[in-house]
Specification:
Layout lengths: L1 H9 L18 E4 L12 E5 L7 E6 L5 E4 L5 E8 L5 E8 L9 E4 L3 E2 L2 E2 L3 H38 L2
Antiparallel strand pairs: 1-4, 2-3, 2-5, 5-6, 6-7, 8-9
Length: 162
């Protein structure tokens, strides 16, 4: 009875909240997160930290299916963007955002290992991977040689006992 009385007094306004939307043309920054093989970190959890407060998150959300996430900075400086996939993988990007000049922002993502869609592996890692490949191939050749020698000896001893 009291609810009906409240609705009658307010004319139905108490039960609804007004909403609205508008298109804005503000400078957004976008980051793409991916695994070393190039696969996107699809739907990864994203946290954005502003240059003015690196402890409290400025924005949180999820990457899209291609590992992309966009946000609109409210200050110039280095913005830290962290992606976590929930399976132990974590990636971090630093986006340098300059104040908008004439409606266009100037930004540059730091430590972006991708150029022209190709993954650039640092020279140190190329050397380490190359040495690892050579050592593993050498170990495999040694193991195969020892195995062949053992199987040759066991066949030779089998023929000698007959």
């Amino acid at each position: 009875m009291a609810a009906a009385f409240a609705v009658a007094l307010c004319g139905g306004q108490a039960l609804a909240h007004g909403t609205g939307s508008e298109a804005v043309s503000e400078s957004a920054e976008a980051v793409r997160f991916f695994y070393i093989g190039g696969d996107p970190m699809a739907y990864a959890t994203i946290k954005v930290f502003s240059p003015t407060d690196d402890k409290a998150e400025y924005q949180a959300g999820f990457a899209d299916g291609d590992g992309r996430f966009a946000f609109v900075p409210n200050a110039a400086g280095d913005w830290r963007v962290v992606a976590m996939d929930g399976m132990g993988h974590r990636a971090e990007a630093v986006v340098s955002h300059a104040a908008a000049v004439g409606g266009v922002s100037k930004s540059q993502a730091a430590h972006d290992p991708v150029s022209d869609g190709r993954l650039e592996i640092p020279t140190v890692w190329k050397i380490v991977l190359g040495l690892s490949l050579i050592l593993n191939l050498g170990w495999l050749a040694q193991w195969a040689t020892q195995r062949l020698r053992r199987s040759g000896k066991s066949e030779g001893t089998a023929h000698a006992h007959q």
